[in-house]
Amino acid sequence: MTNRLIIAVSKGRILTETLPLLAQAGVVPTESPETSRKLIFDTSVPGVQLLVIRATDVPTFVDNGAADLGVAGKDVLIEYGGDGLYEPLDLRIACCRMALAAPEGFVLDGSRIRVATKYVRIAAAYFAARGIQADFVKLYGSMELAPLVGLADCIVDLVDTGNTLRANGLAELEEIMPISSRLIVNKASMKMKHEQVRGLIDRLSAGVFAE
Ligand code: PRT
Ligand code: MG
Questions:
Q1: C-alpha–C-alpha distance, residues 83 and 8, integer Å
Q2: What is the number of the ligand closest to the CA of 158?
Q3: What pLDDT, on the 0 to 100 scale, is given for residue 1?
Q4: Digit-coded pLDDT (tens) for 45-64
Q5: What residue owns the CA closest to ligand 1's atom 17?
C-alpha cells in the first residue's frame, strides 16, 4: 500500500464546511474544488488528495477502499448501513434534523399512513418503534411535493430552517433525530496507514473542539 491518503467529500454544504476544518489540519487543496470541474485534487500535503463526489457515494468509496477517509451526513451513513466503516469523529458540520412533517392540520391518529421519503431505513425504524403502520414511497428529492399532490400523507425529510416546509404548507410534527456530518475511515486504511490516519483525525478533532 502506498502512503497516499485519499479523502472523499461531497460538493455543496459539506465541502464548504469541511474545507476550513481541513485547512486547520494543514490540508489545503492546490486549487479550489468549489469552482473547478475536476473531481480529484492535490493538496498542500504531498500524497494527500481530495475526491469530490456525490454525497450518497461517499460511504461506497470509503467502504471499498477507493478513498481512505470521507465526510458524510449521519442520514447518508444510516441509509448506507453495514458496519464496514469506522466513524471516529463527529465534525459538527452541515447540522440539521430528520423530521416528520405533514400538511397543516394533519394528525397521527393511529391509522395506516403513506410516507414519502428518501430515508426509508430511518423512517421505517421510527414508525416501527412507534407502533405506527406505514407504507413508504421512496423519492430522491422534492419530498415536500408528495402530500400536496396526494402521493403521501406525510414526509420524512431533513429540516434546517424550516423554510422549505413552510413554503409548501407543511408543518413539522416531530423531530426524529439530530443530524451532523461525520468523519468516516476505511477499516483497512485505519490499520495499514495508522499513523497518517490517526494524525489527521487528531488534527481535525483539535479544530472541531476549538469551535
Ligand atoms: O444534492 P445532492 O443530490 O447532490 O446530494 P445531497 O442532497 O445528499 O447533498 P447536499 O449537499 O444537499 O446534502 C449533504 C448533507 O448535508 C446531507 O446528507 C445532510 O447530512 C446535510 N444537510 C444539512 C442537509 C441540510 N442541512 C438541508 N437542509 N441536507 C439537505 N437539506 C435540504 C432538505 O432536504 C430540504 O430539502 O434542505 C431543505 C430543508 O432546508 P430548510 O432550511 O428549508 O429547512
Ligand atoms: Mg441536496
A1: 18
A2: 1
A3: 47
A4: 999 999 999 999 999 999 99
A5: 73
Residues with CB under 6 A from ligand 1: 10, 12-14, 54-56, 73, 75-76, 94, 96, 157-164, 179, 181
Ligand 2 centroid, distance to 70 Cα (angstroms): 18
Distance between CA 80 and CA 74 in Å, rounded? 10
Overall pTM > 0.85: yes
Q: What is the mean pLDDT of residues 63-88?
A: 97
CA distance 165 to 163: 5
Per-residue pLDDT for 176 more than 90? yes
Nearest atom in ligand 1 to the alpha carbon of residue 140 is 3
User: How does strand 5-10 pair with strand 48-53?
Assistant: parallel
Question: Over the Cα atoms of the chain, what is R_g?
Answer: 19
Domain parsing of the chain, residue ranges: 5-94+180-208, 96-177
211 CA → ligand 1 middle, Å = 22
Domain 96-177 CATH assignment equals 3.40.50.1240: no
User: Domain 5-94+180-208 carries which CATH code?
Assistant: 3.40.190.10
Average pLDDT of the residues in 111-127:
97
